[in-house]
Amino acid sequence: MDWWTTRRLVGSSFSSPLHRSVPQKVQVFADGSASAWASYARLAFPSLSMTVSDLRRMYKVPDGHRNHAPKNSQALASFFNISASEADARRFHLAMGNRRQPSVHFVGPQGPPGVEGNIDLQWIQAMGNNVPVTYWATPGGDPATAHEPFLEWILELANSTDPPLVHSLSYGENEEDYSAAYQRRANLELAKLGLRGVTVLAASGDTGVQGAAQAGGQPPRCAPFAAVWPASSPYVTAVGATMVSWEVCNIDRIYAMGSNSSMPFACPETNVGEIVCSTQTGSMITSGGGFSQRFARPDYQAEVIEEYLSQVKVNRSLFNATGRGYPDLSATGANVPIIFENGLTMVGGTSASSPIVAGLVALLNGERLASGLPPLGFLNPLLYSSYQRWPDIVQDVRVGNISGSNLLLPSGSIRDCAEGFEALPGWDAATGLGSPNFKEMPRAPSGEGSLNASLT
C-alpha cells in the first residue's frame, strides 16, 4: 500500500488549523502579479529547510522558475480509492507563498482525500511549478493484502493516446508478491512508455532493506534482504529518501534536524547537508534500497555498481550482487509539511521524495519542450551517462545506512538489521546517485549526452 500509513502525525509532528493563521500578506512576483499568503504565528517547522522555497533552494532551482511549456504534463498514480484534496492543495500553496497552480485533472474513481494523495499532489505541484497535474486513480487490487493493480495502471497509460509525460508512484510491494510473468509484462510496457517520452518514478520504500512491510503483505525481514517492486524495475527511476542534518560540522556526532538522535561521524572538510533518512538518525522511516532478486543489473548502472560493491562490506549471501540496484536518486523524506483536512501536518517517507523529484523532472521537460526538444522519457540511461560526464548534476549523499526500520509498523515488527547498505561517495544502494542539483543539470538545448539532449 502507500508508504505513509493512515496515522496522521509523523515524527515531531504538529497540526495547526489554517484558520488560526494570522496576518495576511502579499507576495509580489517579478512579472507584477501577486498572491496572498498566510503567515503562521508558528511557522517554525521541527525540521528546518522544509518550506517549498527552501527545498527548491536546496535542490538549486532558480528563484521563480516555473514551467512555460503549454504541452508539459505530470501525473500521480493512486490506488484503493485514495484521492487528494485540491482545496487543501490551494491552502498549502497559499501558506507557502506559491502561485496558484493549474487545475487538477482527475482520472478514474475518486474516493475521499487521504494523506497519501495530499502528499503527492502538494509536492509534485510545489516542485513542478505550473505544470498541469493528472491524478490517475486505477480501480482494482486488494487492500486487505496490500496488492496494488500495477499492471492494470500501466496498461491504462499504455492505451492512452496522450499520457502525461512524468508519473510519480508512491506505492510498492516485495518482488515475490507478484509473479515473474506479471512483472515481465509490466516492465515491457514501462519500456514502451519510455520510448513514447514518458518518465515513471517510483518510491523505494520505507523499511530499509526489509522490504515493503505493508499491512497484509510480507512481514519485514533482515535475511535475506527484500527488494521492492516496481522501484526495482530497470525501467523506472527509483527515488529514495534523505533527511537534513545540521550543517555545522565541528563535532564528532551528527544530528538530524528536528531530532534528538545522533550518530558518530568523522566530519569531512565541508558541511554534511543531506544524510540517509533512517530511524537510526531520528526519522520515523528508513529509506528503502538494495538489489533486485529478479532483474539483472542494467548496462547503464554497470560501472557505478561495480565501484560500490568494491567498497561495501555487506554479507553477499544477503542480496543479489548481480541484480538491478536501486534507488537511482533521492530527495528529502522527513518532516515534510502538508495541509490535510485544513491543518498543517508534518509527514514523511519516500511518498514525499518521489513527487518532489518528479516535479523537478517535469520542470526539465518544460525547458526541453520550450526549446523544441522531445521529453526525457525513460530517464535512467541518460541520467547515468550524464553523471559520468557531469557528476555535479547530483548532490552526493555520503552519510547514513539503511539497516534501520519503520516506526509506523506494529511494535512487534520494529527492529534494526545487523547489516544494511551504507551511503558512500558516488552511487550507493542507500541514496542512489544522490539528490538532484537542478542548476547543474545541463539544460542548454545543445550538449551531447546531457539531460537536455535528445534520447534518439
Automatic annotation (TrEMBL):
Pfam families: Peptidase_S8. It catalyses: Hydrolysis of proteins with broad specificity for peptide bonds, and a preference for a large uncharged residue in P1. Hydrolyzes peptide amides. Transmembrane segments: none annotated. Binds 1 Ca(2+) ion per subunit. Residues 435-456 are annotated as: Disordered. PROSITE patterns: SEDOLISIN (PS51695), SUBTILASE_SER (PS00138). This is subtilisin.
